[in-house]
Amino acid sequence: MRILGVASATAALALGVAGNAMACNIRDFAAVAACDDNGKGIITVTDTDASGVKATVSVFLESNGADARLVGEETVVGTREGATVTFSEAWTPKAEYRVHIKAENNSVDEDILPNLITPDVACKSSETTPPASTPPASETPSPSETPSDSATPSPSESTTTPATTGSNAPSPAAGESNLAETGANSNTPMIAGIAGAFVLVGGGAVFFGMRRRGAAKA
Predict the structure, then answer these.
(1) How far apart are the first and last CA of the chain?
(2) Which of 30, 63, 138, 206 could form a disulfide with 68 if both were Cys (CB 3.0 to 4.6 A apart)?
(3) Could you read off the pLDDT of 1-47 as tens digits, one per residue?
(4) The sheet that has 83-88: what strands, in order across it?
C-alpha cells in the first residue's frame, strides 16, 4: 500500500507539473522593436504558449511613467513554435513601451517586464525620394531657329540715307544771279516790254514834233 501511495503521489505531481507547463504564462510572451523590410518601425509580440490559449496583446507608449497613447491591440493564439502579432509604430530611439497580456481564461493579466525600450538608432525608410520636378525648357531658340546671317541687313543697306525730296520751286538757271531767289526773274520780261513801248511812243512823238515844226517854218 505504501508503494502504491508513493506511486500515486508521484503521478499526481507529474501531472501537476505538466499541467503548469501547459498553462498560459507571462513568460510565454516576448516583445521586440525592429524595422520591417521597408525600413519602417514595428513592434512584434511573440506567444510561445503551447496550450493555445487565446490572449489579447495591448501596446502602450509610455511618457513619464504613464500611458501616453494606445499603439494597438491584437489577439494571438500561442503555439509551441511561437505565434506573432505585429504593430506598425514609427518609434523613436530609446522610447519606452508597455506591453500588457490578458489571457482568455484569466490565467494571465499582466505586463511583460521590463518595459520595452527601443534601439538607439531609428529606422531609415527605404522609400526613394521622388525626383525633383524638371525645370521648364529654356526659351532660347535652338540653332535652327536662330535667324540666318542672310537676314541681317548689309552695312550698305542699313546706312543708306533716303534721298531728300526736292521742293516744287524751279531751280535757278545756270549763270543767273541771286535775284531769282527774290522773285525778280518772273517780272523782268514785262518791265522790259513796257520800257520798249515807252521808247517807241517817245520816238514817234519827237518825230512828229520835228515835222510839224519844219512845216511851220516853211
Answers:
(1) 229
(2) 63
(3) 445 444 454 544 444 434 445 679 999 999 999 999 999 999 999 99
(4) 29-35, 41-47, 83-88
